[in-house]
Amino acid sequence: MSPGSPGAPSTRWFRLMLRLRLLGRRQAVALSLMLLWTLAGAALYVTWRGLESASLQRAELFARVLADQTARSLLTVEITARTATERARLRQEADDRVRLLGELASGQAALRSLSIVDENGRVLASGSRSDQEADPRVPLELLNTWTSSADARRWWLAEGSDLSDARPLEPNVAPSRLMAVRAWPVLAADGGRVDQWLVAVLNLEHFATQQSVLLDDERWQAALVDVQGILLASTPNLDLTPGRSVAPHPAVDGLLARSAEATEHLSRNGNGLDGRASHTAHRVLARQPLAIVVETPRTHMVESWLDSAALVMGASILGSFLLLAYSHALARQDRARTRAQGEARIAARRARRSEDELRSLVDGLPEWTFRSDAQGKIQFVNRCWYRLSGLPDDRVLGRRLEEVLHPADAAAVKPLFE
Asked: Could you tell me if 159 and 167 are in contact, meaning their C-beta atoms sit under 8 angstroms apart?
């Protein structure tokens, strides 16, 4: 069809309307996709924060439980030691002392040994076989440190397999030679001066076992730290060996401050004991200058978040695909509907034009021409009808043919429509 033809403006109009509808639908699809992916991002953020919060809460719970267990074990050791110092049997024969110390230590999983040491460092009796050798002695500098009243609740660190070869702690000590020691004065029978001490050596492996049993998960690791920042015991999956310093660390800072403003329990996101980004919690033990640290590397939470993210992203991609497919189907339907409507309008216009041309042709005929339906009602008459009959169109159209004919002619025509 040429631009000047009657159907050309209508075609251009419908094309314009189609473009406007497609543009509106594209904007709606773009907004829907934007909303979909915004919700996906919000879901990922909420999932991240939820996993992070859950990890910190779990670290706090583990730290509290481990701190309580460790404090109870140390309190049991302290009660056992104080009871032993008050028993007169400690002043009896050496064999009786050895038997008593062995019995007391055997009932305490947190104890490696109990020994009696005089003011000169000589081990008088011990529940440990290695300390029952000929004339075992403790270096006086160590004994003076252990018996100092500066901090009677403190467990002192030394290097050695037992009291018989104890010496000052050196950096990077082997874990099996790390000792935690505490001394209690043994009261003389007559209440005189103290010249003997009950020395307890902790079984640090017991605390490591406690931590492993409670956590029972390779993703979690725990450690027992003293006031100097020395690692006393830890789970096997921590990449640090007992005897190494972990200072500076918030747990150590809390032990050193030990004041009203000190942070005696804390959960946070930051570097863990081994320097990796972790979710960590620590708790300072009640009445003991020790702290429990529990942490899990952040990578474990990231792995869980990535699993959730894969599901969210998969659902978002599927939703986007379905939305685009639905939009494409609607666009095709719109184009087909608009094309059909345009073609119908063009066909109607052509039909009207053909009817007008036919009317002009029939009107120009010099013969009586009309059109009626099956019942004989007149639907069209040409101009020649008016000239011959003198009846205008409004008096003829819609009437039956026999009504406008001469009665003689009407009788002949009427049977044709019955």
From this structure: yes
> Which residue shows structure tokens 């004041």?
259
pLDDT category, 58, cuts 50, 70, 90?
very high
8 A C-beta contact, residue 225 and residue 243: no
Sign of the alpha-carbon torsion through 77, 78, 80, 85: positive
What average pLDDT does the chain have? Answer: 80
What are the residues whose beta carbons fall under 8 Å from the beta carbon of 127, sequence distance 6 or more?
98, 101, 102, 103, 104, 105, 106, 113, 114, 115
Q: Are 388 and 370 a contacting pair, CB within 8 Å?
A: no
pLDDT confidence bin for 259, thresholds 50/70/90? very low
What confidence tens digit (pLDDT) does each residue in 150-200 have?
566 778 888 888 887 888 888 778 888 888 998 888 866 666 677 788 889
Largest CA distance in the chain: 165
- Cα distance between residue 382 and residue 384, in whole Å: 5
* C-alpha span between 79 and 275 (Å, rounded): 37
SS (H, E, C) 207-247: HHHHHHHHHCCCCCEEEEEECCCEEEEECCCCCCCCCCECC
Strands 221-226 and 290-297, sheet pairing:
antiparallel
Residue 383 and residue 397: Cα distance in Å, rounded? 13
The label of the residue with tokens 């109990």 reads 114
For residues 401 and 407, give the distance between their C-alpha atoms in angstroms, rounded to a whole number. Answer: 11
DSSP state of 32: H
